[in-house]
């Protein structure tokens, strides 16, 4: 297997990855001891940025609109992760139990009786006809 590193061996590559995993996943400093953290830029130095020549913004997955992303996120926030897979009756009951807003209740009431959904994306596709397309 080609690792693509000519400076380190496999063991050191794995150790370096382990040391930076928390910082990469959390997108913030995760060290408990302040002296281990990198120092911020000085007053006369430019700010450090992940993309210095561009502005990073959130994206909309292919096949969805911004309204789809917002609506699906609101539906997911009400329903949670623990109910999946779920049938229509379970989804409706969870929405009522969680005191969902009227627009979310109206949405879930549009789901056909007896259908089973593996996740919120499948339920959203049934409701709107919009499906997230993956590019890989």
Summarize this structure as a short list of keywords or feature phrases.
mainly alpha; 136 residues; two-stranded antiparallel ribbon; single chain; 5 helices
List the helices and strands and how they pair.
Blueprint: H1 10-26, H2 66-79, E1 86-87, H3 88-97, H4 102-109, E2 116-117, H5 120-128
Antiparallel strand pairs: 1-2
Helix pairs in contact: 2-5, 3-4
**Runs with pLDDT <50, length 5+?**
none
The general outline is elongated
Query: Can you summarize the main beta sheet?
Result: 2 strands, antiparallel
What is the tally of beta strands? Answer: 2
User: Roughly what percent helix?
Assistant: 40-55%
Describe the structure.
The protein has 136 residues and is mostly helical. The chain has a domain at 66-128. Helices cover 43% and strands 3% of the residues. It is built from five helices and two strands; from the N terminus they run ααβααβα. The chain has a two-stranded antiparallel ribbon with strand order 1-2. Helix 2 (66-79) crosses helix 5 and helix 3 (88-97) runs antiparallel to helix 4. The longest helix is centred in the first third of the chain and has 17 residues, at 10-26.
């Amino acid at each position: 297997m080609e690792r693509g590193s000519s400076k380190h061996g496999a063991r050191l590559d794995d150790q370096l990855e382990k040391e930076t995993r928390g910082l990469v996943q959390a997108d913030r400093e995760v060290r408990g001891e302040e002296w281990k953290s990198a120092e911020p830029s000085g007053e006369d130095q430019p700010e450090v940025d992940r993309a210095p020549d561009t502005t990073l913004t959130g994206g909309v997955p292919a096949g969805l609109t911004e309204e789809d992303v917002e609506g699906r996120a609101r539906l997911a926030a009400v329903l949670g992760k623990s109910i999946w897979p779920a049938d229509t009756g379970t989804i409706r009951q969870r929405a009522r139990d969680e005191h969902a807003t009227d627009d979310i209740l109206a949405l879930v009431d549009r789901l056909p009786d007896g259908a089973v959904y593996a996740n919120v994306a499948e339920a959203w596709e049934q409701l709107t006809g919009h499906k997230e397309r993956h590019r890989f």
